[in-house]
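Students often ask what a holo structure prediction actually looks like on paper. The answer is less mysterious than it sounds. You provide the chain, you provide the ligand, and the output is a string of discrete structure tokens encoding the 3D arrangement of the protein together with MU-OXO-diiron.
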Amino acid sequence: MKKLIKNNVSWVGKVDWELQQFHGNEFSTNHGSTYNSYLIQEEKTVLVDTVWMPYAKEFVENLAQVIDLNEIDYIVANHGEVDHSGALPELMKLIPDVPIYCSENAVKSLKGQYHQDWNFQVVKTGDKLDLGNGKELIFVEMRMLHWPDSMATYLTGDNILFSNDAFGQHYATEKLFNNLVDQCDLYKEAMKYYANILTPFSAILRKKLDEIIAFNLTIDIIATSHGIIWNDNPMQIVEKYAQWAGDYQENQITIIYDTMWNGTKNLAEKIAEGIGLTDPDVEVKVFNLSKSDENDLITEVFKSKTVLIGSPTIGGSILHSIAGFVHLMKELKFKNKKAAAFGCYGWSGESTKVLNEWLEGAGFEIINEGLRNQWNPDDAQQVSAIDFGKEIAKA
Ligand code: FEO
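The corresponding structure tokens follow.
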């Protein structure tokens, strides 16, 4: 399958409709994904990125149907992670001498993964590759967005930025372009992708966006490596990234809990009631962690100005589900967000103290000591939980 994007540039990737988990089981992909690979056929023929390893054979067979593989002059590997480089071993068996243009770090990652000494051509920001017909590729290192080896490639003449992971979404579709799909689904997946993968690198991203803007390149199309291609007002996603990279938050408070016998659940609901009574404008959302998709919850945290985390006390500490989630939030290095803890207990009641320590360690500003409730909340304790919610709304 080859789908035309513009002039002599085509999509030759793979739509993975059934993908439900990515990065092992770290990232849920409820809308599947795509691995976008691109073929540029000017005087020189270039393949930009490949697909994930399980689809390597299918990819190479498909590619061989649309082009004589021996006509490929150059390969560009914008990023070494296996979802984009996974078909290289299969492909390089057939065209072993074709040069692979990539960053210095990509040589390390590709050699480290595939143990092959292919014909690597190291490029850095500003380096160019002439394709004939007045067109050239310009390389832009995208270090830490999201790997140290990441790179983007710009095609002059057609003004296409092959951005690799940046601006992508895990979103399977037969439609190629952003204006042809459900905008709500598209932006939900784009934000989830940013929140779960790029949040830790927001400061780097802010600088990189400034650097790309300073190049003064006309960008007509942003051809990502996952999901749709931004061809209709492509700068809309760049503007969104600039917003998201600015320690983004909406007027939202998110309450996330796990519960053993529904006491902590009861607190969560009463706290939400108190917030709603005090600030009708704020969006309050409540989630039982064990019944939710963790990566969707990370998106909710990303949107929140305040996060409340609830766990009953168990073993003098907190539930392992909550511990895992706080760890995930810590990895993502959220900035400029407040937090508070709550939880029921029967005997010793350490959960709020432990949660406060962990949340502080995860970079949140702790609002107060938290709400610590012995046994299941009675009427008076439920009123206290509502009051706690009111206090949070005012904080
Ligand atoms: Fe889509 Fe970092 O790989």
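The longest strand covers residues 338-345.
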